[in-house]
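Appendix C reproduces, verbatim, an entry submitted by the partner laboratory led by Prof. M.T., so that reviewers can inspect both the input and the predicted structure.
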Amino acid sequence: MSRRNAEGAASGATTAAVFGEVLRHFREAAGLTQAELARRVHCDRSHVARVEAGTRVPQDTFAKACDELLGTGGVLLRLWRRIDWYPQVEHPDWFERRARMDAEAVVVRAYQTQVIPGLLQTPEYATALFGRRLAQPDDVEDRVSARLSRQRRFLEKGGPFYLAVLDESCLRHVVGGPDVMRGQCEHLLAVGRLPNIRIQIAPLGWADIDRPDTSLSLIELPGGQRWVYSESLDRGHFSDDPAVFMHHTRTYDVLRADVLSAPESASLIRDVLEGYEADDQPSAPHRDVDQEQLQRRQRRRLRRGGPRIYGRRPRP
């Protein structure tokens, strides 16, 4: 596993080492070698050795499989969930800074285009996304574990407010195939019901929406610190200029008012989800196409949440 070179890595390594020591204790108590454990949980012996040494970020599925095999009563999975795995993975320095902000933020307002933001990604979506960019499978697993760790405080009870406006392209840009996108849409619907998270969609067909030129986040930290964060290719940009923050806040507030509301956005996400379900169905015979299209239209009218109306709302 790659170590990050930022400050604080030592404390992260300590928690990883604790997980490794606990795993070793239960493995030896069960009378298993590293090779025997690896064979039974379907991984390489080197993976077990590195986890026990505190130099490898395990997946939650690995912790759960070891719990079941070793009869620990779920100790390893509970410990896995309590550890911040993010410090165990090497990231660019600029993203380390953003991650530290996420660990302290009280409010994050985000606008995202093309891909689902990291704080809302499923493990499968993140795996497919990192798989495009990283050559080594171990690096992909490490990054996914770190990303899930970073999400945790936003998904827990009493988590920070996270307001996300997603361009519809985030839903239409296929990452990992229809099955992954179905799971991602279902996840958006689930987390969007949390009291601290709101997800709104900016429809592609609404050309008069004043969309930001790039994805950005407005981050509020304890003590009143406020930052604007955006990314370009392989670089992050930060500004704590009050005038810059106020300018982007006003633009963002107008954007939120002009796009679909959270309930309307959930309806659109459900429609996109239905499209990914249809993508996995066998093609109907040519003679049945008209009937199938009619049935789909009828299902949309009868489906939960009422009628789907995405026409541009008039400005007040």
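Residues 9-29 form the longest helix (21 residues). Additional entries are available on request from the coordinating office.
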